[in-house]
């Protein structure tokens, strides 16, 4: 697969469209994907990585995001678990 010069953030709407049209995922599944991808965008921005291209994302980035999700709590103190 060729390297994309399109930012990761810019791929997300295309991915969600793909999930809807090509994969035919259930609405709830699509909503869940969108929910976590919004959190991913926020994580990218908070870590000054919103300019990443897909091929620049590292296993360490993915681990850090997973750790962020694991430790995330909202303003009411509720976790994602």
From TrEMBL:
<dbReference type="Pfam" id="PF13495">
    <property type="entry name" value="Phage_int_SAM_4"/>
</dbReference>
<dbReference type="GO" id="GO:0003677">
    <property type="term" value="F:DNA binding"/>
</dbReference>
<feature type="domain" description="Core-binding (CB)">
    <location>
        <begin position="6"/>
        <end position="81"/>
    </location>
</feature>
<dbReference type="InterPro" id="IPR004107">
    <property type="entry name" value="Integrase_SAM-like_N"/>
</dbReference>
<keyword id="KW-0238">DNA-binding</keyword>
<dbReference type="GO" id="GO:0015074">
    <property type="term" value="P:DNA integration"/>
</dbReference>
<dbReference type="InterPro" id="IPR044068">
    <property type="entry name" value="CB"/>
</dbReference>
<dbReference type="InterPro" id="IPR010998">
    <property type="entry name" value="Integrase_recombinase_N"/>
</dbReference>
<protein>
    <recommendedName>
        <fullName>Core-binding (CB) domain-containing protein</fullName>
    </recommendedName>
</protein>
């Amino acid at each position: 697969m060729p390297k994309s010069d399109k930012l990761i953030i810019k791929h997300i709407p295309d991915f969600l469209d793909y999930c809807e049209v090509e994969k035919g995922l259930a609405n709830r599944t699509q909503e869940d994907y969108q929910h976590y991808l919004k959190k991913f965008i926020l994580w990218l921005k908070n870590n000054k990585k919103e300019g990443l291209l897909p091929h620049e994302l590292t296993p360490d980035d993915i681990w850090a995001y997973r750790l962020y999700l694991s430790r995330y709590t909202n303003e009411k103190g509720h976790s994602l678990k």
